[in-house]
Amino acid sequence: MGKPNLIFVLADQLRRASCGYNGDTRARTPNIDHLAAESVDFAMAVSGHPVCAPYRATLLTGKYTTSTGMVINELRMNPNHECFGHVLTRGGYETAYIGKWHLWANELGNHHLPRNSFVPPGENRLGFDGFWAAFNFNHAYYQGFYHTDSPKQIPVHGFEPDFQTDLAIEQIERMQAGDKPFAMFLNYGTPHDPWTRSNVPEEFYKPFEWVNFDELPPNYSTESDPYADLWGQPGPEFFENLQEIKRCYYGQTANMDWNIGRLLAAIDRMGLREDTIIVFTSDHGECFGAHGRQAKNCFYEEAVRVPFLVRWGGKTPPGASTDACLNAVDIMPTLLGMMHLPIPGAVEGTDLSHCALGKAGEEPEAAFMQCTGPTADWQDGVEWRAVRTRQHTFAVYRRDGRELLFDNVADPYQMNNLIDDPAAAEVACRLRDMLAARMAEVGDTFEATTWYRDNWTEDRIILRSATMQ
Which residue among 131, 162, 330, 464 has its CA within the 20 to 30 Å range from the CA of 405? Predict the structure, then answer.
């Protein structure tokens, strides 16, 4: 049997809680739900660093943030890592990368339209040496563009995810006719904000126009969490517009679902179902006011729990679910394990390919999660570390040593901090020790954000990597 193809589809800011297959009755995600019914669902999957660029650095290296230095957004990745793309290319795969990259920035710029969008060919594409139609980031979806091998922006006509899906199908048709297996990474920007009606196709907004989003979760709070950075503290305008924000979020998600349906239909039309591993996931979630937070960058379930579906026709058990504590750092070794490709020795994650294939094997007891700084600024005081087991989340803030412990089974909204409960003392001690051991194992010394600015970077360019320490 030949090597399997890989199609990796990455949403941006889609939380697991907002998928129909997970029970959200307002979601219009029939194609994602159908994919879930044919896939293995990693039901405990988390984003180990729930921010766009840090997550992507982990995805492509299999290393934690403290080993890549990608501690905030709008930094430029050090290419001195053996990455997913390198292994694929050396393994005889033709690669294709479409959409958001977010590892080449070194200018803060405008939040939605950056100035430095072009990633030049060569080492900074981290082994993706094949087809390239990408950009650093863009969330103005009717002002889409991409680059190939020139700094000149190639404009996208229409809604960006629609075009990206067309391009992906076109490239799959081209690559499947060749003599190499292929690996495509399709990186949607949706459903990341801005959540305005002008940033959603009207036909996908309209079904939500009269949907009532008044019912709020019990952990919703209009008092901003003082541990959040400025990007995560919702202001009065956010709370006033929350209904409209959610209509746009769900509309963008519905459009992405439609595009995923087109992609899956094309794969079947080309007869690739049995030969292709399909992964659907997201880089992080969205809080929508839970715990007085907006956006991501926190250890709460709304930010870290993400969809993670794996389908390989005839190989993965359809409709199966695993409670393995899969983290972002485990994705690269897991997929390389499924593809029988070598896993680089510096990878810090775990190969959970046996879970995807419905087999027994060793699993991590918990997922180790990090926040090394605010979303995009050099600001100290918001750093935290956490571990999440199948039942509990234990977290600690660097600023003042505050600890939190939640029983996510008994308290799914994480409203009851058990850290001072004598009945939970044994669990707290065990998870505290587990966190310290995991940090020591990967050399995480819980530094302030600006320590990385002063010791790892120059002009927001990362000059250091874990191998240089």
Answer: 330
pLDDT confidence band for 469 (50 / 70 / 90): very low
Grade residue 465 by pLDDT with cuts at 50, 70 and 90: low
Confirm whether 355 is a catalytic residue.
no
pLDDT score of 466 more than 60: no
pTM of the model: 0.97
Options 49, 81, 86, 102, the catalytic residue: 102
Average pLDDT over residues 346-372: 97
Question: Which residues fall within 8 angstroms of residue 178, CB to CB, at 6 or more apart?
Answer: 94
Among 52, 83, 298, 355, the active-site one is: 52
